[in-house]
Specification:
The structure holds two protein chains of two kinds.
Chain A: E1 5-11, E2 15-21, E3 27-34, E4 46-47, H1 49-67, E5 74-81, E6 87-90, E7 100-101, H2 109-116, H3 124-128, H4 138-147, H5 151-156, E8 160-163, H6 165-173, E9 183-185, H7 186-189, E10 195-196, E11 201-202, H8 204-210, E12 219-221, E13 224-229, E14 238-244, H9 245-252, E15 261-265, E16 269-276, E17 287-292, E18 300-307, H10 311-320, H11 329-334, E19 344-346, E20 364-366, H12 374-400, E21 407-410, H13 417-427, E22 431-434, H14 439-451, H15 458-464, E23 467-471, H16 477-494
Chain B: H1 6-19, H2 27-34, H3 38-50, E1 54-56, E2 63-65, H4 67-70, H5 79-97, E3 100-107, E4 110-117, E5 132-134, H6 139-146, H7 149-157, H8 171-184, E6 187-190, E7 197-205, E8 211-220, H9 221-224, H10 233-249
Antiparallel strand pairs in B: 1-2, 3-4, 3-8, 4-5, 6-7, 7-8
Helix pairs in contact in B: 1-3, 2-3, 5-10, 6-8
The chains are: A alpha+beta, B alpha+beta.
The complex binds adenosine-5'-triphosphate.
The site of adenosine-5'-triphosphate has 19 residues of chain A, from helix 10 and helix 11.
Amino acid sequence: MAHRYVMAIDQGTTSTRCILFDQRARLVSVVQREHQQHFPKPGWVEHDAVEIWRNVDRIVPRALREAGIDASDVAALGIANQRETTVLWDRHTGTPVGHALVWQDTRTDELVRELGQRPGAEEVQRRCGLPLSTYFSAPRVRWLLDHTPGLRERAARGDVLFGTMETWLIWNLTGGPDGGAHVTDVTNASRTLLMNLGTLDWDPELLAFFGVPRAMLPEIRPSTDVHGTTRRVVPGIRIAATLGDQHAALFGQTCFAPGEAKCTYGTGSFLLMNTGAEPVHSGHGLLTTVAFKLGDEPARYALEGPIAITGSLVQWFRDGLGLIRNAPEIETLARTVADNGGCYIVPAFSGLFAPYWRSEARGIIVGLTSYITKGHLARAVLEATGWQTREVVDAMNADSGLAAANLKVDGGMTADNLLMQFVADVLDVPVMRPMHAETVSLGAAYAAGLAVGFWPDLEGLRRNWHRAAQWLPQMPAARREEEYANWRRAVELTFGWMRPRGGGPPDPRNPGDKN
Amino acid sequence: MPGPVQSIERAAAILRLLARGSGRLGVGEIAASLELAKGTAHGILRTLQGVGFVEQDRATGKYQLGAALLHLGSSYLDVNELRSRALNWADALAARSGEAVRIGTPLEGSVLVVHHVFRPDDTLQTLEVGALLPLHATALGKVLLAYDADLAARVQRGPLESFTRRTLVTAPALTRALAAVRDAGWAADVEECVPGEAGIAAPIRSSGGLVVGAIGISGAVERLCGARSRPDATLAGHVRDAARAVSRDLGAAR
Ligand SMILES: Nc1ncnc2c1ncn2[C@@H]1O[C@H](COP(=O)(O)OP(=O)(O)OP(=O)(O)O)[C@@H](O)[C@H]1O
């Protein structure tokens, strides 16, 4: 029987989904299961890796059943996953060492501050492309090694393994303690602070700097590569691709060429631009990361601008202020007025991320007069997402020398027409939404399908991309410049609000330095 | 003839009770006042909460009259929420049918386009969200008229503007067409608004079956219609499936 489908597993922050796609990249079945979020202390966020594995065990057979097919109909499996979330487990039993520490977890705050003062700290970003921050995996591994008695010795002997979620799932799917493959891909490895961007292998200096034993680390593989064949859950499916979720979205949006960029608008937003065959080191506070690596071909790199607060500002407007009953209503409210009335909201709830990295900044509403209504505030909320996008795009253009000709968008906030029009207006380029909403899963499926010849080449995949909507810039240039200048003045007002807890001033280039 | 429905009478009593005094009561207090079992009162409150007629205070757990009651007359489903909830299904319909998709709601005697997905052929198209279409000459509009007798009566009292040779311009013709829509569960227009173009649409329902909008495809007659200008049954099936999927998301039964 011919292989007619490709399977994707999207292991996300709140849920895990299994999706089957047909040859024309149409969705055939979708099965999803949420997992619990554990918040044992302020700033701590954990997942139970066993629960996630059990969810995979349930949803994969269900997805096949719903499509009315079996494993022999599946050409390949691609995995996309929440990035930077860290799990350690016992190689012999498969039992995790406590819960997985999630990417949002900031318990490594102090540790990161301390590491930042050590010799070699200034070398970190040059080697791995990332600033020293609580956001990435290495400090979490270190924290676990420091806080679990006996763990460091077991890790050094290779009895305890490290992985991000894709590594954990592949190890389990390919047999677990009984010969499971311990592998990761370049995109996920590029989020650990431990991989050298040039060699695409673990960097001995960085391992020494963070005190992470090499024996516990997975082998780094290309993004597309047959990592193994499933032996558990549903045996006999080739695992042919892995990508971090944002990298998968870039791939699913078919941003294969340098200068092509996408932004995923959800709780937070992530703008990635393909920069081609050479890593571009950022002079403007962006992250340098691997976009994808197809088999033996050279890796493609990307610049990334993570924006911490976008959809979550809308959530705050709903839950914190109670001015709307559901998120989409913000557009209705914003449309009750013609403009922002001179009001700006800068959502530096826990400092500013790219391109500023000011951990001491705090949010601000500025320009209040008695004229301002909740309608103006709603506009200011949406505009904040637009301007934050503009700042990241400006930084990318400056770093890469490439000017994005358009922006491809996805995520829940793309349902908001006012916002999408505003993004087009402030970027002064067309904004396009594809017909495939599930860009993360689609990217994983594309990569896997490509690896096994289910889809012939990148051009073939490009032809599957269809525009569902497009917003063209309409704002007069003079108005755009004036508004942007106002926004930047508002941003400056947020700087320096939090006072350091004793000691010197916070390091503005160090995002982990949250006070 | 069946007698009054007891649970509706009880629901009315709960609303009257909440309309008195401070207007904030716990489930125990409500049950005691009306001499209902607590479980019964709770079940009715949860249902009333589901339709927005009562709200529960998160901190105290007490119930009060819901904002939806104050705006009973105005449209209760925000159009931007409708778009958000329909986004994925509208995309899927465009991908399956190969045609442009629109979602419409009534606004001041017209169809307001609240969502638009381009035809998936990457030709130059402009977003028509915010555009107004004639109710009596489009498939979307006919769906909205078929399930809203008052709106239909108003439209039929005014002059029915003619856009093409095929536009329905008399009240009896429109009445017959709307009855046919209700029978079939979907509507079509074949060159009734724009020469060479056709549309197929079906109702989007929320809880209780209330029609809150219409979703449909539109495009060239040759593609949407088969022999003798009859709308293609497979395409109509896709449209109805999409409408049902959105309705399910909005809490409609079926
Ligand atoms: N119409 C809208 N206008 C503005 N914001 C919206 C709208 N609809 C949803 N949002 C916001 O978008 C976010 C949800 O988007 P999405 O479901 O893509 O996010 P996510 O939770 O980050 O995704 P995932 O769980 O897949 O990682 C919420 O923060 C919500 O406030």
